[in-house]
């Protein structure tokens, strides 16, 4: 019996295009001004120190902005970038300049599963902050009360089986009682290797089908 569901966001609960055509450009457009305005913020400084560590060199604020803008353009999954993007997006959501996209079937499926007593979790390459924002400021309202927890790349890479084993330890369930939802075959492979049940979402014609159960929308997932 499935007692918990762990879901990806991009291409699963929410549109790939929203992330790449709205969120990423917004972060890139505001990155430099944000870093200047928040130069005295300890949390921002910690992330900038991680950028320097990643680059293995000292960086001025403008040089760090250059690096971060390039990482956005290359869709890098680096944790300091994701953390800083989350901070920028929070400002955008709170200002009403951003609204989180979710597919119409997403709230219906999430509410049904929670109502059945299943625990819901998110695992995305976006920071935990960014995850809460996309669901908290979604075009279907605040969906965050439906979730029991969030995981990002601090727990490990999404294509590594060890990451999913770490998630299982955190939620305290064996793999056969946990379902992982994603559009990416390599992520599903890693979750399956950790013992989880899997299901692939085929939301987009660009998605490459993988050797896992497949559905077109969350309301079609069988438990």
Give a description of the structure.
By secondary structure, the protein is an alpha/beta fold. The chain has two domains: 4-15 and 100-220, 3-Layer(aba) Sandwich (Rossmann fold), CATH 3.40.50; 19-94, Transcription Termination Factor Rho, Rna-binding Domain, Chain A, Domain 1 (Orthogonal Bundle). 47% of the residues lie in helices and 11% in strands. The protein is built from eight helices and six strands. It has helices at residues 16-37, 42-55, 61-73, 79-94, 105-115, 128-136, 161-171, 185-193; strands spanning 4-7, 119-123, 149-151, 178-182, 197-201, 214-215. A six-stranded parallel sheet has the order 3-2-1-4-5-6, sandwiched between helices. Helix 2 runs antiparallel to helix 4 (79-94) and helix 4 (79-94) packs parallel to helix 6. The longest helix has 22 residues, at 16-37. The protein is globular and about 55 Å long. The termini are close together. The model has no long low-confidence stretch (mean pLDDT 96).
């Amino acid at each position: 019996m499935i007692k918990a569901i762990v879901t990806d966001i991009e291409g699963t609960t929410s549109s790939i295009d929203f992330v790449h055509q709205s969120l990423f450009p917004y972060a890139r457009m505001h990155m430099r001004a944000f870093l200047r305005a928040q130069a005295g913020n300890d949390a921002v400084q910690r992330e900038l120190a991680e950028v320097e560590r990643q680059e293995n060199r000292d960086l001025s604020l403008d040089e760090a902005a250059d690096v971060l803008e390039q990482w956005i353009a290359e869709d890098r999954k680096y944790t300091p970038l994701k953390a800083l993007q989350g901070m920028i997006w929070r400002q955008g959501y709170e200002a009403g300049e951003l609204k989180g996209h979710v597919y119409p079937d997403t709230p219906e499926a999430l509410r049904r599963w929670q109502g059945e007593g299943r625990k819901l979790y998110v695992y995305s390459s976006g920071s935990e902050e960014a995850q809460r924002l996309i669901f908290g400021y979604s075009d279907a309202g605040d969906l965050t009360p439906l979730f029991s927890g969030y995981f990002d790349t601090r727990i490990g890479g999404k294509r590594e089986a060890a990451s999913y084993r770490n998630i299982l330890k955190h939620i305290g369930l064996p793999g056969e009682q946990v379902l992982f939802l994603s559009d990416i075959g390599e992520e599903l492979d890693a979750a399956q290797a950790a013992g989880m049940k899997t299901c692939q979402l085929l939301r987009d014609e660009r998605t490459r089908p993988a050797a896992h159960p497949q559905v077109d929308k969350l309301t079609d997932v069988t438990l």
